[in-house]
Amino acid sequence: MIPRKLIAPLSPGLRRVFALADEGMSSLKAYQTAETKSEIPCVFDNLLHLPDQAAASEAVIFLVAGSDTTAFTLVSAVWHICHDRAVKRKLADALKQAFPEKQREGEYPALLDLESIPYLVACVKEGLRVAVAVPGRLPRVVPGGVAFEPLVVDGKVVPPGSIVGMSAYTMHTSESLWGENAQDFEPERWLGGDAKGLDENLVTFSKGARNCAGQTLAQAEVILALFMLFRNFEIELDAASEKGIVTKDNFTQTVEEPGLLLRVRRV
Predict the structure, then answer these.
(1) Pick from 29, 30, 22: which is nearest to 4 by CA?
(2) Quick check: 59 pLDDT over 80?
(3) Whole-structure pTM over 0.90, yes or no?
(4) What domains can you pick out in the chain, each with its CATH number?
């Protein structure tokens, strides 16, 4: 109920929140006034039953809810790519081959075009696997009733109502699933003939009915960011970050100070 002009000068954080809210509303208005609708569904297509303010807020949640996890995934992927010169060179070459001409300022390639670059997609998937932005167990309640089959794990029936969980870190570092190099950043594992089967073991966004609603947006953000970074810049790790980044599990992983330090030169 307090006017923005009184609050905004007191808090830079709130000013950024207000800016996000305004962006959500302007995006909704652009959607509503567009002469033609895109063939590709967007979040507003599923929010038509809500008042404008609620619809705009729901859309902004998609950006905010996954910001820290997506940022950590991007930091982790950039470190691993830069740490392996062969991977970095392969990625840069693949991007340059797909887009020989640099984009002008403010121009971005279509997402579908970026998703058609196999090595870029492989780096994104391997980044999602290795980063494990939410490494711990996510609790789930075993359903019951006549509509559900009993949950059987290793030959043992888990009773309805039991709370179970699975660690994404355990899944993503299992040598039985990923091989002896499970701890290594290997984009090539996603380029083999059995790569489609690996998606079943990638639980970055959880699985099932309670999986991450924003996973498509998160992957698009990482794809676009890696393209812009490694197509337009020569990036090297600063000496302070050569040995790695220090992380902390706060349910979502965060990078401790001083963060990831890079040396960047435009190419």
Answers:
(1) 22
(2) yes
(3) no
(4) 4-65 (no CATH), 68-134+169-266 (1.10.630.10), 135-166 (no CATH)
